[in-house]
Amino acid sequence: MSAPSNAPAASDLAYIRFVSVENMMKLVHSIGVETMLKDLARYIEDDFRRWEKFDKTPRVASHSTEGVIELMPTSDGEDYGFKYVNGHPKNTKEGLQTVTAFGLLARVSTGYPELLTEMTLLTALRTAATSAMVASHLAPKGSKVMAMIGNGAQSEFQATAMRALCGIDTLRLYDIDRAATDKVVRNLTGKGFELVPCATPEEAIQGAQIITTCTADKQYATILTDNMVGAGQHINAIGGDCPGKTELHKDILARSDVFVEYPPQTRIEGEIQQMPEDFPVTEMWQVITGAVPGRTNDRQITLFDGVGFAIEDFSALRYLRDKLRDHPFYQELDIIADPDDPRDLFGMLERAVPNG
Ligand SMILES: NC(=O)c1ccc[n+]([C@@H]2O[C@H](COP(=O)([O-])OP(=O)(O)OC[C@H]3O[C@@H](n4cnc5c(N)ncnc54)[C@H](O)[C@@H]3O)[C@@H](O)[C@H]2O)c1
Question: What mean pLDDT do residues 179-204 have?
Fold first, then answer.
């Protein structure tokens, strides 16, 4: 609905930049998906390096029998960001997505928001960029083959980021639904991969240096059992991200070195929810700053228990704000009531009586 003709003009601060799905797609195509994944990984890594500056809290989750709705806030003292995201594994059966999201960035100095954006695509990109950034620290050097178990909405993003950042050129694909695997083959043909559809998870992991599990099921699942994981592999486990929703047999955790984003959240949501509260984990930001080692030998099994943390979304929002300077794919949204006299909110309303 447009404002009445005699409404006072809003000040500049009243308008925030809004990135629609259409504009996000234009932005990704304009930058190029691989370049964007590498850029995002750099922004995320930079923010992990200054981890201690951030306000941190486990995300605020509202669970139901069908899924979860979560709010993910954080701030570095200059900017404040949050994401709204859902996870509903049953949605795809009704033609809806498992994960959708939008997010906002605001100035801490005034509290005024400055950017509102779709984040369904941006979450897929930031999740993949995070996984690949982590793998660039932990996976065996020269990794070429990745097993991709779970071939849903997130999978092509994971594969593309692992190619762009880690040099993966062979994808061994498995999903309980063959149609999902066929979709990945269609989408990634001609994109620099050897694509190998597999009939079982056991077949998919043959010769893989990296195993990504990215399935969606609201239960304790066992996508990988202990006998399937061999010395020297890197596991990128990102599908288990809720209480009661895991992908790995706990024996795998016991013989891996486990790396996490933010332990207070991962102990609730990640694979390690299956382990005692004092189960040892390494925080990824400390590997990135060089405070603690990542992979130390060729036989070590490294496991990224990725659940998705607010700082990764903050990095993505920060990246988006920077990119909009050169790529004006946004609309102005009049979202903040901002009267000329800041104490005269009522007067602003009164003066805006519709004509007639
Ligand atoms: N860690 C993070 O930051 C992060 C971010 C986004 C999504 N996720 C999670 O990743 C998962 C995948 O997300 P998506 O958007 O791709 O979901 P999706 O529903 O589009 O795809 C999931 C796929 O997993 C397959 N699957 C289910 N059970 C399986 C099994 N036992 N073996 C093999 N395949 C199986 C399904 O057939 C489907 O194709 C979800 O659980 C989501 O919550 C995590």
Answer: 98
